[in-house]
Design goal:
alpha+beta; two-stranded antiparallel ribbon; 7-stranded mixed β-sheet; 9 strands; 25% helix; 19% strand
Length: 204
């Protein structure tokens, strides 16, 4: 077993039982979120012609930023943003780590992270973990794909690279986007989110 999975076992969240149901409508769609990449933004404003991807992320989780044993999903963010843009799907990151808001996940640290990693997408502050609570988001990262009507189509992991027993790589999010845009059947509509737990001030 790779060392990262031993070191980070306690941070792992894999259950999908408590996630919001598919076809649920995006909550807080018209709430304005502070954007470290520019003008404050609502999720409805971020919506593309064909849908919207939300990625709950942060500045420090090894599953996001990577380790010597694991590449970190953050390295895919700009590629995923460009892929979604080609499919006319919006793409935003949200930081819900309210318990670390005066530390590593402060707004100023988010600005630094976005600049350092050259994020192409909006990076929004989810104050008091409001959206994470409403969507029952578990981890950083945890992704949610909504269609053009802001109905939930897919939730879970970006792909399966966390699984050291996998026989092949499966790009869950990209496949879901393609299926949604082409109105084809999506094979994996829910997958276990993997990563560090979202650091809420209190549990929802």
């Amino acid at each position: 077993m790779p060392r990262i999975f031993t070191l980070l076992f306690l941070f792992f969240v894999g259950s999908i039982a408590a996630q919001v149901k598919l076809k649920s409508e995006l909550p807080l769609a018209d709430q304005s979120f502070k954007n470290c990449n520019g003008t404050d933004l609502t999720l409805r404003q971020a919506l593309g012609e064909n849908g919207l991807v939300l990625v709950f992320s942060c500045n420090t989780c090894p599953f996001v930023v990577g380790t010597p044993d694991f590449p970190g999903w953050e390295r895919q963010y700009n590629d995923l943003y460009n892929f979604a843009k080609e499919q006319k799907v919006g793409f935003v990151l949200l930081n819900s780590n309210e318990a670390k808001r005066d530390k590593a996940d402060s707004f100023s640290e988010m600005e630094i992270r976005a600049k350092t990693m050259s994020y192409l997408m909006p990076y929004l502050v989810d104050e008091k973990s409001a959206l994470a609570n409403a969507l029952e988001a578990k981890t950083t990262p945890h992704v949610f794909l909504f269609d053009k009507d802001l109905k939930l189509i897919y939730s879970g992991s970006i792909d399966n690279i966390w699984d050291n027993k996998r026989k092949k790589d499966i790009p869950y999010l990209k496949n879901a986007i393609i299926g949604m845009v082409l109105n084809n059947k999506i094979q994996f509509k829910e997958t276990p989110p993997r990563g560090c737990s979202i650091k809420r001030v209190s549990n929802p």
